[in-house]
From TrEMBL:
The gene is FREM1. Interacts with FREM2. One of its GO terms (biological process) is anatomical structure morphogenesis. CSPG repeats lie at residues 42-132, 166-260. Transmembrane segments: none annotated. Belongs to the FRAS1 family. One of its GO terms (molecular function) is carbohydrate binding. It is found in: Secreted, Extracellular space, Extracellular matrix, Basement membrane. PANTHER family: FRAS1-RELATED EXTRACELLULAR MATRIX PROTEIN 1, MATRIX PROTEIN, PUTATIVE-RELATED. GO terms for cellular component: basement membrane; membrane. Keywords: Basement membrane, Calcium, Cell adhesion, Developmental protein, Disulfide bond, Extracellular matrix, Glycoprotein, Lectin, Metal-binding, Repeat, Secreted, Signal. This is FRAS1-related extracellular matrix protein 1. Residues 592-699 form the C-type lectin domain. It comes from the Eukaryota.
Length: 711
């Protein structure tokens, strides 16, 4: 037997045949049956998924997101009766705003209904409706009959109008020796990073506007050249490599780029600086007398000096024998600390008094760390036989005695003689000195009045008894002439050609104090490389460094090093220290441990204004703080007045980071300060005694801020 639904679906005719008879006559007839459908099934809301679109966009309502079904109702009769229209957009029917308050499932299936957002910052919109089959009351939702309206939700995503923000942009200087013998610098997220909350890292693209001048960029995964650009994901994966061009004697390169996101938003063009240092021998040939005692090979570093670098020294015997004709220090590693451009590697020459042929060995530089090798990687040292106490230097090596002196080589005062000096005054006239404008010291104008030409007539006498004390060595350290003596003795300076009255004015007491235990000559270079803990504290001088003593030099006997007061503390001084300060830091900036600092005072600015000024006007960033000693230096540098520093958690509340991208390794919070995540206190201000206080970034502080930039 067919049920109602089956009969409606089939096209079979419904009728009955019959025969009527009275016994005499028979008549056939047909009885037709007319079936009338009865709607007893309620419509079911089978899909109500909602929409997701971007701000200001239009999207269709399709059966995938909205569907009403009913087995006994045609789709053109399945109706959505609207009870509330969208608030931040409009429903459209065939391209025009929907005027009536209803539409059908057939309209949805035909893609005639759409929603369009009218823009703005609203994240959610909706409309409500009830479903009907135009016969019955109510509809089924999740297996239950209801007559109350249901909500169709529309999620609106903000249109990405912001370009990625560059949060790390630092000069690259970490050089690595590659397997193929080239040198390269890996460009990673540690020094170049952009952030965009609306974009994944693989969609943040660094578009190259101008490639490097000398080297090239390579993708180490594919081995191909990079010409168009790379992504933040590539930087995170450490696959972007800058390959240094060894054929060009340059120490820096740069490229210009622009960071963009998937929506086409672009930040301002930026320049990526790549700098490295180059290590090589100052000269490639040396000639030394056998009785010289020690020869110092000068190893130089040029280019970027802001980081430490290392080089290995290897000695190759040719005709000279190690241990017999010369000795070297056990350590073959030469370390260049930040800011240091010159290192001396000492070799002790053995004097046996025998007449023999000249001997030769070579010193080779290899295995640089955080640097590249220059062209002068070898130095040949020729030991000249003393010929019974006398030897003469050949000029064939391209280096005369005068050149040796001018480059800071060590020579005994009585050059060419191994015998003790004769009784009488110590004459310096046999020491070749190049012309100079004069020398300065703590003796007033005396050092300025004596030009180096007059030093040939200068004698050093023991005060009181007339003893003659020859120096063990004399050498030039850039603008200074250094005399080394052994023993405790008081000396005075005299000029043979001056009058008695002039001598009286030109006398100066010099106290020369040596170590009680003499260190082997070949090990003197190692003393400078020993950790500070083995020597006297560099800042433990009896006389404190104050602004009144700024520029004053102090010689520390225990370490045999020279220190200078910078107005705040005693700092190790050499000619390179002065060179870094004067040549690298811009005018008005102050050098400290590899960085330059600029103090801006009496400016009523917010943290953001100070950060922008450091970045755009001073080409640096609000200063970071590395450790307690650094904080004390900054506090003194500020004049012990409050100032902004670069620490903030504006991007990720509760996650403090430096404005310049350095890792947070030290904090100095004031007791009870809100250094955890507190709304409205996202920037750090240094207050009394250098303590940190989290405060409102938009709050105007009528004091100072410190900008810094690495060399």
């Amino acid at each position: 037997m067919l049920n109602q639904e089956q009969m409606l679906k089939t096209a079979l005719p419904l009728f009955a045949r019959f025969i009527i008879s009275n016994g005499l006559r028979t008549k056939h007839g047909t009885f037709k049956i007319a079936l009338e459908a009865a709607d007893q099934v309620l419509p079911t809301l089978s899909r109500n998924m909602g929409l997701r679109l971007t701000e200001g966009a239009m999207a269709l309502l399709t059966p995938d997101v909205l569907q009403l079904s009913d087995p006994d109702t045609a789709k053109e009769n399945l109706t959505f009766l609207l009870t509330q229209l969208p608030q931040y957009g409009h429903l459209y029917y065939n391209g025009t705003v929907l005027l009536q308050y209803n539409f059908t499932q057939q309209d949805v299936d035909n893609r005639d209904v759409a929603y369009k957002h009218r823009g703005g910052n609203f994240q959610t919109d909706r409309f409500t409706f009830v479903a009907s089959d135009r016969t019955n009351q109510g509809f089924i939702v999740n297996g239950r009959v209801q007559s109350e309206p249901v909500t169709f939700t529309i999620q609106v995503d903000h249109l990405d109008k912001m370009a990625p923000k560059i949060i790390h942009l630092h000069c690259f200087s970490d050089v690595e020796l590659l397997k193929n013998g080239n040198y390269g610098i890996y460009i990673t997220a540690r020094s170049l990073r952009a952030s965009d909350p609306n974009t994944e890292d693989d969609k943040i693209i660094f578009k190259i506007l101008r490639g490097p001048h000398y080297g090239y960029l390579e993708n180490i995964t594919t081995g191909g050249f990079i010409q168009e650009g790379f992504s933040q994901k590539d930087l995170n994966s450490k696959i972007i490599l800058y390959v240094i061009n060894k054929s060009r004697e340059v120490n820096s390169d740069n490229l210009e780029f622009q960071v963009t996101d998937a929506s086409g938003n672009s930040a301002a063009p930026q320049r990526l600086e790549l700098r490295w240092s180059r290590i090589e021998m100052l000269q490639t040939e040396y000639e030394v007398c056998e009785n010289t005692g020690v020869v110092s090979l000068k190893i130089t570093r040029a280019g970027h000096l802001g980081e430490s670098a290392f080089i290995t020294v290897k000695v190759n015997e040719i005709s000279a024998r190690l241990g017999k004709d010369f000795t070297v220090t056990p350590s073959k590693l030469v370390q260049f600390d930040p800011g240091v451009s010159t290192k001396m590697w000492n070799i002790a020459i053995t004097y046996d008094g025998l007449e023999e042929d000249d001997e030769v060995f070579e010193v080779v530089l290899n295995s640089p760390v955080n640097a590249v090798l220059g062209t002068r990687t070898k130095a040949v040292v020729k030991i000249l036989d003393s010929k019974g106490g006398q030897c003469s230097y050949s000029h064939s090596s391209g280096q005369s005695k005068h050149d040796f002196w001018g480059r800071g080589m060590l020579f005994p005062v009585s050059s060419g003689s191994s015998s003790p000096s004769r009784p009488g005054n110590v004459s310096l006239e046999r020491i070749p000195l190049p012309p100079s404008k004069g020398m300065r010291g703590h003796g007033g104008d005396l050092w300025q009045e004596h030009s180096l030409a007059n030093w040939s007539r200068t004698r050093l006498k023991v005060t009181g008894n007339g003893r003659i004390v020859p120096p063990s060595s004399v050498y030039r350290n850039e603008t200074d002439v250094v005399f080394k003596y052994h023993g405790i003795v008081s000396l005075k300076i005299e000029d043979d050609t001056s009058s008695a009255e002039t001598n009286k004015k030109a006398q100066q007491q010099i106290n020369v104090i040596s170590r009680k235990t003499e260190i082997p000559l070949s090990d003197k270079a190692e003393l400078a490389a020993e950790p500070r803990s083995r020597h006297k504290d560099l800042n433990s001088f009896q006389k404190a460094c104050t602004p009144d003593l700024k520029g004053l030099l102090h010689y520390e006997e225990s370490t045999q090093k020279l220190f200078q007061c910078d107005g705040i503390s005693w700092k190790f001084w050499n000619s390179q220290s002065k060179e870094v300060t004067m040549k690298k830091c811009p005018s008005g900036w102050t050098y400290h441990e590899g960085s330059c600092y600029f103090l801006v005072v009496n400016h009523k600015v917010t943290w953001n204004t100070a950060a922008r000024a450091c970045r755009e006007q001073y080409l640096g960033s609000l200063t970071s703080v590395a450790n307690e000693q650094h904080m004390q230096w900054l506090w003194d540098f500020s004049g012990k007045m409050p100032f902004w520093i670069g620490l903030n958690d504006q991007v990720n509340p509760g996650h403090w980071e430096w404005n310049g991208g350095e890792p947070v390794t030290y904090t100095n919070w004031r007791r009870g300060s809100y250094h955890f995540s507190v709304r409205g206190r996202n920037c750090v201000f240094v207050q009394k005694r250098g303590k940190w206080q989290a405060t409102d970034c938009k709050k105007v502080k009528p004091n100072s801020y410190i900008c810094s930039r690495k060399l």
